[in-house]
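Task card 7
Instruction: Convert sequence to structure tokens.
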Amino acid sequence: MIAIFDWDGTLCDSIEHIVCSMQHAAVELATEPPAAADIRNIVGLGLPEAMTRLFPALDEELRNELSRAYSRHFSSPDRGPPLLFEGAVETLERLRARGIELAVATGKSRRGLDRVLGALGLADFFEATRCADETRSKPHPQMVLEIMKARGKCRDEVLVIGDSEFDLAMARQAGVRSVGVSFGVHDSDRLAAYRPLAIIDQLPQLLDLEVFAP
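Output:
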């Protein structure tokens, strides 16, 4: 069995920093900053796809400048260390102790994910990771399918855990099961439309699911 986690909004409590970084990038380039709700709505997509949705009237060159400014603000050393949601590490450790393999499928760049995993001491914690700059962006199933192939798993041995409809749509397109988390960017009603096995309010609740029973 392998559990494929989204990162931002699922394991990492980073949504507000994403919102602030995007708004600061827009102000820096004299562009009207998007509303916080609009930014939250695109979390989970790859950065090019997110910028196209947030700034549809801008040309590609300016969107690329915004992407660079956003990345600079997000990775600023003034930010402080990244924070995981309560119970994240303990839940991951207990899943591993039950023989569950762990993976990450994220809209972050490879550089961004490697940086945050290194900062948290989790660089060797996951058996596989896939990022949006090396595959198609969610909700395309490429990330899940590549992880399945790399780890030799069939569809009934895979569970995707995420906070956005992009995560659950990716799982559905890959033909695998999913679990939604209610504390990220999309609410429970929105996630329920994708018929996940469960929608949890805290990460340790994963340990109570039958699919992860010891």
